[in-house]
Design brief:
41% of the residues lie in helices and 10% in strands. With 561 residues, the chain is an alpha/beta fold. The strands form four sheets. The chain has a five-stranded parallel beta sheet with strand order 10-11-9-12-13. A three-stranded antiparallel beta sheet has the order 1-4-5, with no helix packed on it. Strands 6-8-7 form a three-stranded antiparallel beta sheet. Helix 4 runs parallel beside helix 15 and helix 18 runs parallel beside helix 23. The longest helix is centred in the first third of the chain and has 31 residues.
Length: 561
């Protein structure tokens, strides 16, 4: 009867295979790599030539047909060997637990122990209620990730060394028209002088039995919008203008846009601002038309659908247009030149940053940078548009974004590993392309497991400032909004030239609880690990510094939040 038990134990990753146990011949004191596990972070047992990667399993197999007597004789003859093997396994388990390395006992991570490609010269390669002080507790997992920090720091340094904020080349108007012929044929170059919002009348050729929203893509592709359009149908014919036997409908674009960023409190700002009687928003809070729907994108992973025409987007402002039309009709008889005070807003948080569709529709430039951006088209029609941006510490923004969009297995460990993977991918791009090319790289953005690029505020803002003036922006911080909602809302009112509110209206607007706060199940997960926070602070640091310089406000450096 022959029993073969081989054990290969790696106790400490940084001291690879210095301690091994081979049950056949006693301890090996050689420091050479173990041929059994080939350098992997595993605990392997070889039983009769079979590898097993479990600590608490020991299979003993006999050759031939053995009876119970043989088995008993085996127990008497090999009891010491078995006891010795069990003692070794117990000591191994205890050493892993006591050393704080039990995370690596069963889980092997591709990001541990210097597995990052880095600088080739060095290596061969949310909302208001979410803003609060975190009290971190030390953990075994966090201690393990600290060991990875030197490798990750090399990646961050490699990225920082390649950061260059360059001025983009602007397309001319004729190039824009060639890209969007239909849009330019629908939206006029001039708007009604008596409306603060950009509005105009266009002929409606349908009959009174015609459904004006029959082909609207927002209705066709989303059941949740159908009730909204049912309400619009009921009042549509009562808000047409009639002249010379023709019907005319008022069309409008937004006077202002809340353009970003996601998980920075835009929903809370939207919910409060729409309580002002002079403000009317689109029928859908976030149409995402400029960035996605006009390209036929609902979800990129689902592929492209039919493009949503500009008429479908304009339909979303019909409720506001009806009220503006009524005001214009009433004023025409008494004060024809009186300005209508109603302003229209739109709050798609993707407008500032999401240009992922450009690679599908625009000719690729030689340097990998998009030839056209969303702001180029908005400016072509609305050079006087007002733009509101709500930002927060990008480190906290990313964690909030992760908790909101991740579907399963959410944890501080998972977030840390996704961050390190995203940094690696971003560095790989920066080795070959410019900062702007990587920020707007659709393939990279879809590959990164967390939306690291959304927090690069300075890159996006500088590109917007190439077409809009700084005076057309109101840039807010979520941290300030969370601490003083009343002050923030007054700044918004002043920026939009809105009329004053009554005490009751103002109290309702400022005392309502925050919108779109972190879910209870996400709160229970706790904060990110301190080492993850340190890594992200170092990555976002140069971008925050640039943003603070552009805005001449050190608060946007988020050195203390």
């Amino acid at each position: 009867m022959r029993h073969c038990i081989n054990c290969c134990v790696q106790l400490f990753p940084e001291d690879t295979h210095k301690q091994q146990v081979a049950c056949q011949g006693g301890p090996h004191h050689s420091h050479q790599a173990c041929p059994t596990c080939k350098g992997e972070n595993k605990i392997l047992f070889r039983v009769d030539g079979k590898q097993m990667n479990l600590l608490a399993v020991l299979e003993v197999r006999t050759e031939g047909n053995e009876n119970w007597g043989g088995f008993l004789r085996f127990r008497k003859g090999k009891r010491c060997s078995l006891v010795f093997g069990l003692i070794i396994m117990t000591l191994v388990m205890a050493s892993y637990i006591l050393s704080g390395a039990h995370q690596e006992l069963l889980i092997s991570s591709p990001f541990h122990y210097g597995g990052f490609p880095s600088n080739p010269s060095v290596m061969d390669g949310e909302n208001p209620s979410d803003v609060k002080e975190h009290h971190y507790q030390p953990s075994v997992n966090n201690i393990s990730y600290v060991k990875d920090y030197p490798s990750i720091k090399l990646i961050i340094d490699s990225i920082a060394a390649r950061i260059e904020f360059t001025t983009r080349q602007l397309p001319d108007l004729q190039d824009l028209k060639r890209q969007e012929l239909h849009m330019f044929s629908v939206i006029p170059s001039k708007f009604l002088p008596t409306s603060k919002s950009p509005c105009w009348y266009e002929e409606f050729s349908g009959r009174n039995t015609t459904d004006p929203y029959l082909t609207n893509s927002y209705v066709l592709y989303s059941k949740r919008f159908r009730s909204t359009f049912d309400a619009l149908r009921k009042v549509f014919w009562g808000h047409l203008s009639h002249a010379q036997g023709k019907h005319f409908r008022l069309r409008c674009l937004p006077h202002f846009y809340i353009i970003g960023q996601p998980k920075c409190g835009t929903t809370d700002l939207y919910d409060r601002l729409r309580l002002h009687p002079e403000v009317k928003f689109s029928a859908i809070k976030e149409p995402h038309w400029w960035t996605r729907k006009r390209f036929g994108i609902v979800r990129l992973r689902d592929g492209l659908r039919d493009r949503y025409p500009v008429e479908d987007y304009l339909d979303l402002f019909d409720l506001a247009a009806h009220q503006i039309h009524q005001g214009l009709q009433a004023a025409s008889a008494e004060q024809p030149s009186k300005m209508n005070k109603i302003i229209i807003g739109e709050a798609s948080a993707s407008t500032m940053w999401d240009n992922n569709a450009w690679t599908f529709f625009y000719d690729n430039s030689t340097d990998g940078e998009p030839p056209f951006l969303t702001q180029d088209f908005i400016h072509a029609f609305q050079p006087e548009a007002k733009l509101i941006v709500m930002l927060r510490d990008p480190v906290e923004r990313l964690y909030s974004d992760y908790l909101y969009f991740a579907s399963s297995n959410k944890s501080a460990d998972d977030f840390h590993e996704k961050v390190t993977e995203a940094l690696q991918l971003f560095e790989n791009c920066m080795l070959d392309y410019s900062l702007r090319a990587c920020v707007y790289n659709n393939t990279l953005n879809n590959a990164m497991p967390v939306r690291l690029q959304v927090g690069l505020y300075a890159v996006y803002l500088l590109d917007w400032l190439t077409v809009f003036s700084k005076e057309q922006f109101l840039i807010l911080r979520l941290e300030d909004h969370a601490s003083n909602v009343k002050y923030t809302m007054h700044k918004v009112f002043q920026f939009l030239n809105l009329g004053p509110l009554s005490e009751k209206q103002e109290a309702l607007m400022t005392k309502n609880p925050a919108s779109n706060t972190r879910r209870p199940e996400d709160r229970s997960l706790g904060p990110m690990w301190p080492i993850t926070q340190k890594i992200l602070r170092e990555f976002y640091g140069p971008f925050n510094t640039k943003l603070a310089q552009v805005l001449d406000d050190e608060a946007f450096a988020w050195k203390t939040t």
